[in-house]
Design brief:
With 164 residues, the chain is mainly beta. The chain has a single domain (2-163), classed as Jelly Rolls (Sandwich). 2% of the residues lie in helices and 52% in strands. Strands 1, 6, 8, 11, 13, 14 and 16 form a seven-stranded mixed β-sheet that branches. The chain has a five-stranded antiparallel β-sheet with strand order 2-12-7-15-5, with no helix packed on it. The longest helix has 4 residues, at 11-14. It is globular. The two termini are 19 Å apart.
């Protein structure tokens, strides 16, 4: 197997693949009698010309490290945001496109409270919580056309447990 190290999720490293959804230093405005800070418009969501935004709940089994990466997927007609409903970090795996197939994957570990949004047509691993419960709110495209492509690696990758 081929090895991949886990890196801390940063805006600069993740920018080609999507958005990190997290609190800003200062809220955009205070609402609800000034008792709630609104951190506004944190992700570039796209649902295609014939899609609509949908909110789903995913309850995923936690994975352990080292993690064997056999499959990546992408959504050609819409973005997909994962918002953890716990403070537990999770694993995020992305890859650049290499003529219609995933290039070399990159692995990131979120900080507690961070969510992510994959841009439209970005190769990514499946939802990979590291702790139970693996409960996430997912905002993605709802529509009747096919919005999923999968790619199975002939030779899997191993994602190591060391945070680089």
């Amino acid at each position: 197997m081929r090895d991949i190290s886990i890196h801390q999720l940063t805006h600069a490293d993740f920018a080609p693949f999507g958005d990190i959804i997290t609190l800003k230093g200062t809220p955009d405005k205070l609402i609800n009698q000034d008792l709630c800070g609104r951190h506004h418009d944190l992700a570039n969501m796209y649902f295609g010309p014939n899609g609509k935004a949908g909110i789903s709940l995913f309850d995923a089994e936690p994975r352990s490290l080292p993690y064997v990466l056999e499959l990546m997927e992408r959504h050609p007609e819409g973005s997909q945001a994962f918002l953890p409903m716990t403070q537990n970090p999770f694993l995020v795996i992305v890859a650049p496109d290499n003529d219609g197939v995933p290039g070399k994957p990159l692995a990131f570990r979120t900080a507690p409270g961070q969510g992510i949004n994959f841009y439209c047509n970005i190769w990514h691993g499946v939802l990979t919580p590291l702790f139970a419960p693996g409960l996430f709110a997912v905002v993605d495209r709802i529509g009747t056309s096919t919005n999923l492509e999968e790619y199975w690696f002939e030779k899997p990758f191993t994602v190591s447990g060391d945070l680089k």
